[in-house]
UniProtKB/TrEMBL annotation:
EC number per UniProt: 6.3.4.15
Residue span, BPL/LPL catalytic domain: 1-189
UniProt keyword list: ATP-binding, Biotin, DNA-binding, Ligase, Nucleotide-binding, Repressor, Transcription, Transcription regulation
Binding site for biotin: Q45, R49, G50, R51, K116
Residue window of the full protein shown: 70 to 323 of 323
Segments crossing the lipid bilayer: none
Entry protein name: Bifunctional ligase/repressor BirA
Length: 254
C-alpha cells in the first residue's frame, strides 16, 4: 500500500477475485480474529447483497465491492449513526476524486443526478447491548458502462465513469475513502455524532423534501426536516406532528 496514509482503516486488505459476497468472507474473518479496519475486497461478486433482501449487481472488475470490519465500543443503538457516517465518508471521497455533485438519500444511498451510484449495508453482532463488531458492506459502481447494467437498472442507476465521462481509478478512490472514513470515525469516537450529523445533513438530498418512507410497519409520508441525534429521519406529518423514522426506503413525493 504505497500511498496509504491511514492508521487502521484499510491497513490489512484481503483481495479476492470472485466471491459470493464479501460480507460472508468478512464475517468468517471476524470469527477468526480480524482486527478493526480490516477490509475484504473482491473483483466481482456472484451473490452480492443489498438492503431489504435485494441483490447487488457486482460485475467483475467494474466496481469497489468491499466489506470493512469495525469494532467500536459503543452501545448497539449507535448503529444507525455509523451507517450515516459511512455514507458521508463515501460521498466526500467521491467528490474528492471526480468533479461531480453526489448526494445522500436517507439513510445511505449515494446518488448522482438522481441515480444510485453506491450503496451501504451494515451488519452487526452485539452482546449485552454493546456492539461486538460491525461489517460495513460498501458497493460503489465505479467503471460500469450503460451496457454493464441490466435493463431494469439502466434508468435508476449510474456509475462514476458514466457521470465523469472517463474511467476512474479504483485504487485512488479507495485510498481517499479510507482516509475520509478514518478521519470521520476518529471524530465520531472523540466528539460523538454531532459533527457527523451536520455533515450528513449538508450532503443530503432528502432533507427539505416531501417523502414517503416504506418500511415493514407501513408507509409514512411527510416533510423530511433533518435527522435526530440517533440518526433517525425526522418527518413532519400533515397534521404537524414530527415523527422519527428509524429504517425504511425513501421515495420522493411531488
Ligand atoms: C444497498 O444499497 O442496498 C447496499 C448495497 C451493498 C453492496 C455491498 S458490495 C460489498 C458488500 N458485499 C455484499 O454482498 N454487499 C455489500
Amino acid at each position: 500500500q504505497r500511498d496509504l496514509t491511514t492508521r487502521t482503516i484499510g491497513r490489512t486488505i484481503r483481495m479476492l477475485d470472485t466471491v459470493d459476497s464479501t460480507q460472508r468472507v468478512a464475517r468468517e474473518w471476524v470469527a477468526a480474529g480480524a482486527e478493526e479496519g480490516s477490509v475484504v475486497l473482491a473483483e466481482g461478486q456472484t451473490a452480492g447483497r443489498g438492503r431489504m433482501e435485494r441483490k447487488w449487481h457486482s460485475p467483475q472488475g467494474k466496481g469497489i465491492w468491499m466489506s470493512l470490519i469495525l469494532k467500536p465500543t459503543v452501545p448497539i443503538h449507535f448503529l444507525p449513526q455509523l451507517t450515516l457516517l459511512t455514507a458521508v465518508a463515501l460521498c466526500r471521497a467521491v467528490k474528492q476524486t471526480i468533479p461531480v455533485e453526489c448526494g445522500i438519500k436517507w439513510p445511505n444511498d449515494l446518488l448522482i443526478g438522481g441515480r444510485k451510484t453506491a450503496g451501504i449495508l451494515l451488519e452487526s453482532s452485539a452482546e449485552d447491548e454493546r456492539l461486538r463488531y460491525v461489517i460495513a458492506g460498501i458497493g460503489v459502481s465505479v467503471n460500469l458502462t450503460e451496457e454493464d447494467y441490466p435493463p431494469e437498472l439502466r434508468e435508476i442507476a449510474t456509475s462514476l465513469r458514466i457521470a465523469a465521462g472517463h474511467a476512474v481509478d479504483r485504487t485512488e478512490l479507495l485510498q481517499t475513502f479510507f482516509k475520509q472514513f478514518e478521519d470521520l470515525y476518529d471524530l465520531y469516537l472523540q466528539q460523538g455524532f454531532g459533527p457527523i450529523r451536520t455533515l450528513w445533513e449538508a450532503s443530503s438530498i432528502t432533507i427539505g423534501r416531501k417523502v414517503s418512507v416504506r418500511s415493514a410497519s407501513g408507509d409514512i409520508t411527510g416533510l423530511a426536516l433533518g435527522i435526530d441525534e440517533h440518526g433517525a429521519l425526522l418527518l413532519q406529518l400533515d397534521d404537524g406532528n414530527i415523527k422519527p423514522v428509524y429504517s425504511g426506503d425513501v421515495e420522493a413525493r411531488a
